[in-house]
Amino acid sequence: MTAVALVISLVMALRPGSEADDGYGAASSAAGARVIAPPTASPKPTPSPTPSATRSASPKATKKATPAATRTAVAAPKPSAAATRTAAAPRPASGAAPLAGRIKPGVDYTGVATFYGAGNGDGHACSYGPSADVMTAAMNTTDYETSMACGAYILVRAASGASVTVRITNECPGDCAPGHVDLSAEAFAKIADPVAGRIPITWSLLSPANADTLSVRYKTGSSQYWCGIQVIGHRNPLARLEVRTSSGSWLRLSRTEYNYFLSEQGSGCGGAIRISDIYGEQLTLDGIAVRPDAVQPTSVQFAAH
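RESULT FIELD:
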């Protein structure tokens, strides 16, 4: 029986396709090491990016702005300090303009008169300095006209018929409208009771029959390199002041608000001076030395009109 059992075991072991348990519950192939697992499908190679993908990020996408576009975006340069100073410099009126400014001969102006404590005239806008003359007035800014009214004589008339002659030595700014004349307290009292304070008036330009000869003064700080020139005591309003330069030509100087004519580069300082009144008369003054803040008399005066 032992022999029969052994034969049966051998027969079962030699049957094709049979699997044996390795004692751990796992089946192994009878062929052992010769069993080869079925091959798996090999992955297809991933194609590398084509050159066209690289070309998609072409320089066209990052094209730089042209120089013209860059120049358009650049702000215009600001004018230089020198250009700004030149534009702001005072400029004389055109030679073709009438010699008379806003205040013209033979014209009656209407306005109002007020008064103020003019004192002795020191510190007034026309820069004449102290004076014993109290028959003075301040002209409104418009008719003051960059000091062109300085030294003018006007006849002021009240509605009552009373009148007074005053010389313009100051400017009345603020609420002084065109036609407004701010008289010295003494001058106002000649035509109205000071209690009134403000009265309607008419006024007109005068050319006094009696007038002393005029004088010239160089401003404090003047020299051969820079000077300011002022004319004092002129009978008629002054329209122009010119100086003779080293080349022999006449240079017209600009007028300031404080009634001096300036030669900012020194041209003509200490040389001959030519002045014109609003009627067109010209006077040439020689021998006026540069003596700052000294009143130098002359022997001439404009004609009466």
